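As promised in the previous annual report, we have extended the structural survey to additional targets. Below is the entry for Helix-turn-helix transcriptional regulator.
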Amino acid sequence: MPQWSEYTDGERIKILRGMETRQSDLAEMTGLSLQTIQQAEQGKRLTLRTLIRIADALGVDTSVVLGQQAPRRSMQRDDRAMVRDLSRTVHDTAAGLLDITDPPALEELREASKACWDTYWRGSYMEAGALARPLLEQAAARLHDQPADEQAEAWGLLADAYRLAAYVANLIGSRDLAYAAIGHAQHAAEQAADDVRRALVMSGRSWVYLRDTRLADALTLAERAATDIEPKFSTATMEQLVAYGSHVNFAAVVASRMEDKERAADYLSQSHATGARMGQEYRAHGTVFGPVSATTQAVGINVALGETGKALSLIGDIKPVHERVLSGAARNRYAMDKALAQADAKLWDASLETLEGALLAAPQWARHQVLPSVIVSRVATGSTTRLRRVVELIGTASSTGGFPPATPRNAL
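The corresponding structure token record, generated without further manual editing, is:
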């Protein structure tokens, strides 16, 4: 398959347009004539004016059309437009450019924030990104209207909104936007003087570093985030335990990527202890944690460490009734880790069955994952029919955007 830069400008426009948009549709979207669109796709004539209008209509930078930058993996035109809108909102709100004159009350904002995070944890990342844009605008406007001595909660809600934007951007590989949004979240959390939110933002930045393969930096921040909010179990609130448990668990994830078994095991022990203390799954500040989360996430950590036996032992202890208490995104991720552990154990038919079930249950979520392809590459033998079905499902998910998937920067 050719690299993105190897296509002609016209071919790239046609690929970005996709099957769902006709040339006549693109002409109407750009205000250009059908003949101009046809000439552009034939490589006969692409003026600067035409280039700018087409790029804007397709929701991409002009550098993507010109082949200087690959399009985002597995993103449809509407998805790309969402990312551009979210990016503009992140930068505009940080610059104080507001046009909302009647912002909602804090209680309404709290409910809106919870709804946005619920969407995110269902695994509907593009919808969460679309919701994050008005949430950011409204939170920034509320902050602007709050009396100076009553701004702490508004700053906290703004920090949560920026963190949501950073999470969505990080998942879809928009790394520059992720860095910008998490930076603004950090500033807002500092203004809120909220230790838990500061730690959540720090852990979020650690995750951005992890996806950017800055492993040492990621581990340093993850450990700081966990240490800064380590509670006394005898007096800790559920909110504090959620934050601490998720933080030590993520520190274990980063340690496992660095192949530091001793450190990962230590953090896993603390994660399990926190989950046991909680006794149930709990959600706070856009984060979910509890005993089931601790166990299911330990599966992926042990797989990363090459401890396939431990991973399978944990899988044996997790029953369907346990999985049902997880959020959609967490349940889908656990299915990927389970399939990967089964593949490593040469339980190829079981691995394909688990993977196929996850792909069928959450096709939109799967669009933004690289693990399905990794799992298939490890399945040496198995049901030829099921393997074919899984490969077709992965192909459908990764090609939804109408263009060949760009090679991800890493598979973490």
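The two ends are 23 Å apart (CA to CA). The longest helix spans residues 125-145. These points will be discussed at the next consortium meeting with the crystallography subgroup.
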